[in-house]
Amino acid sequence: MQDNSFGSNIEPHQHQAGRYGTDPYEPELGTLPNGERDEEAVNKTGTTTIGISTEEGVVIATDMRASLGGRFVSNKNVQKVEQIHPTAALTLVGSVGGAQSFIRTLRSEVNLYEARRGEHMSMQALSTLAGNFARGGPFLAINPILGGVDDEGSHVYSIDPAGGVMKDDYTITGSGLTVAYGTLEDRYEPDMSIEEAQKAAGAGIKAAAERDTGSGNGIYVATVTGDGVDIADYELDELDV
After folding, report:
1. Is 104 in a helix, a strand, or coil?
2. Known catalytic residue: 45?
3. What is the pLDDT along the chain (241 residues), one digit of tens a residue?
4. pTM beyond 0.85, yes or no
5. Which position among 22, 31, 45, 47 bears the catalytic label?
6. What EC number(s) does its UniProt record assign (predicted)?
7. Rounded distance, CA 204 to CA 15, Å?
8. Among 3.40.1050.10, 3.60.20.10, 3.30.420.40, 3.40.50.740, what is the CATH number of 44-67+76-234?
9. Is 12 left (phi over 0), alpha (psi -120 to 50) or beta?
10. What does the domain layout of the chain look like in residue ranges?
11. Cβ distance 127 to 157 under 8 Å?
12. Alpha carbon 152 to chain centroid distance?
């Protein structure tokens, strides 16, 4: 007679985990296998990123520093703003790998949209897509700024790690935001020109670099208009005049 008592004292969950060294019920929805990582060894931008919307277009400014664990400067010339659309740019904030993957994914989706429809994606659609990816994708902790221009005008959005999308006239993200906000609040004007926005953003990045260890080493500025995206680099003192 078959002995049905074999293994009866072992829960299936425990038996499989012990046999294979893994939990068969993992990973759970929304998690990644081998999700534990040495955060001290992950390159992070730390960073200060600023986005300002004007009548003429959008200005996005970032610093250039990447760090390990927030204590060691691992790179002094990181371009933290990238073009992802003919008239839009996105910043890198958080883990470098997650931010780079996020940008590549968005850029691919924008190209696919335009190839299928023969028209540019609107900023409202692009911001919604970015929020959906941030909420559901494996991009670690990111908090980018999206800035762009379409037929409706100039737009600046902050995208939080949970996928929240908030539009504003100007916004700041990153480890130096508290210092940069104080500077930008003093300089921002609703009718400022794009050149004035560049100077105000540069002043905010410079102020953050003075106090935030995750920010510094220079400034990248993306100027977004209906004609496209122009990205240039500056010394910390060049724009604050």
Report:
1. helix
2. no
3. 545 544 444 444 444 444 445 554 444 444 444 445 444 544 555 689 999 999 999 999 999 998 876 678 888 999 999 999 999 999 988 777 778 888 999 999 999 999 999 999 999 999 999 998 888 766 567 789 999 999 999 999 999 888 899 999 999 998 899 999 999 999 999 999 999 999 999 999 999 999 998 899 999 999 999 999 999 999 998 886 5
4. no
5. 47
6. 3.4.25.1
7. 58
8. 3.60.20.10
9. alpha
10. 44-67+76-234
11. yes
12. 24
Distances (CA, A) of 221 to 14, 142, 178: 55, 20, 20
CA 219 from chain center: how many Å?
A: 16
Angle at 84 between CA 80 and CA 89, to 5 degrees: 55
Q: Which tokens go with 204? A: 């905010």
Question: Kind and range of the H or E element at 43?
Answer: strand 43-44
